[in-house]
Amino acid sequence: MTTTAAPARPSASPNATHRILNFSAGPAVLPEEVIRQAQQDLWDVRGSGIGICEHSHRGPVFDAIIDEAVADCRRLASIGDDHEVLFLQGGATLQFGMIPMNFLAADAVADYPDTDVWTTKAIKEAQLFGRTNLAFEGAKSGYDHVPTTSELSLSPNAAYLYYCSNNTIYGTRYDAPPKTTAPLICDASSEMFSRPVDIDRHALIYAGAQKNLGPSGVVLVIIRKDFMVKKVRKVTVMMDYEVQAKNGSRLNTPPTFGIYMMGLVFKWILAQGGLAGMERRNDEKAKVLYDAIDGSGGFYRGVSRPECRSRMNVSFRLPSEDLEKRFLKEAAAQGMDGLKGHRDAGGIRASIYNAFPKSGCEALASFMKSFVAKNG
Predict the structure, then answer these.
(1) Along the 376 residues of the chain, how does pLDDT read in single tens digits?
(2) φ and ψ at 38, to 5 degrees?
(3) What is the CB-side half-sphere exposure of residue 298 using CA atoms within 13 A?
(4) 44 is catalytic
(5) Which of 118, 240, 268, 285 is catalytic?
(6) Which among 96, 247, 280, 376 could disulfide-bond with 372, CB atoms 3.0 to 4.6 Å apart, if both were Cys?
(7) Burial of 41 from C-beta contacts in 10 A (0-12 / 13-18 / 19+)
(8) Could you tell me which residues are beta bridge partners of residue 86?
(9) Helices in the chain by DSSP H: which ranges?
(10) Given 211, 267, 285, 340, which residue is catalytic?
(11) Please, what are the domains in the chain?
């Protein structure tokens, strides 16, 4: 009788390829410690003899993983029992429609300040279900800032106010949430857990994972329980926040690997000093690049007004598109990838999310200065 030997366990080889600086807007850079842990756990997670991608979503190993992820999420943002923590699918784009489907009646109105492409898309989805009030028209100023309180035109008795806290394309952000008496809903996809967040002020806050929290394919939703139950129409079970909550984000097979990775990222953020520690780190990183822009004598021009500058997405222009193309080519040759700006804004965009190292910002700033010296 012949036997077949079990396949040998593959050896980890983290240095087999050279990792370069990843300035991508998303999917984006992940903490190296998290990646290395995932390398091991793809083969055997928690000594179970089975890899994370192979475990049942209803088995005891994944039970522990998702329970820890929820607990660490609550700890990070001081989320109390008034809010549910959900891990859903469909990306941030599904939330554009899922929110009004649940909470915007046909005869009601919701306030939407338009500050970027992503709010524009959310508005179009909401108009399928009810009326929207354009509370701020960012396009009039080229989306170079978010509204002040005096610039907001709000509706009486709005079903909710929906805003995007950080705008990836034009590099703007709200320093604080908009003031409203309506339930407050936030798309925080590109800055979630990059700074402290006032959960209690929000009826719902969500984020696609692929920028600051983990890989693509999972969305973190934090929703207040008393708001969650106020559905204005019947919806399919997959689109029902209350049903999803009652099933612990496991109404169907969830994105188990994405949830696992998000849990590791939560632990990593806690180890960095939590959200206050991340904010200090991110402010320092962004300052390096904004100082390079402001100190260039006008060669580099920031897209955002200074008072609204994002700490996650630094968008800027050069004197000409030809120079921008040259900048991108030479930066790539020095191991800097993902710097091309979004097609709607053009120019250069450096996305420097939580896991992006300060040394990478310093390397880009040094390159920017040398590029000015040669081309200014």
Answers:
(1) 443 343 344 444 444 468 999 999 999 999 999 999 999 999 999 999 999 999 999 999 999 999 999 999 999 999 999 999 999 999 999 999 999 999 999 999 999 999 999 999 999 999 999 999 999 999 999 999 999 999 999 999 999 999 999 999 999 999 999 999 999 999 999 999 999 999 999 999 999 999 999 999 999 999 999 999 999 999 999 999 999 999 999 999 999 999 999 999 999 999 999 999 999 999 999 999 999 999 999 999 999 999 999 999 999 999 999 999 999 999 999 999 999 999 888 999 999 999 999 999 999 999 999 999 999 8
(2) -65, -35
(3) 0
(4) no
(5) 118
(6) 376
(7) buried
(8) 221
(9) 32-41, 60-77, 91-103, 117-126, 225-228, 241-246, 256-271, 274-294, 321-333, 358-375
(10) 211
(11) 52-271 (3.40.640.10), 274-375 (3.90.1150.10)
User: Any idea how long the chain is?
Assistant: 376
Helix (H, G, I), strand (E, B) or coil at 202: coil
**259 by DSSP, 3-state: which?**
helix
Residue type, 177: P
What is the crossing angle of helices 60-77 and 256-271, to 10°? 40
Q: For residues 187 and 230, what is the distance between their CA atoms, to the nearest angstrom?
A: 20
Helix or strand (DSSP H, E) at 156: none
Q: Among residues 114, 187, 240, 285, which one is catalytic?
A: 187
Residues 6 or more apart in contact with residue 292 via CB below 8 angstroms: 300, 364, 365, 368, 369
- Within 10 angstroms of residue 371's Cβ, the number of other Cβ atoms is 20
Instruction: Give catalytic status of residue 211 as yes or no.
Output: yes
Q: What is the pTM of this model?
A: 0.94
268 tagged catalytic? no
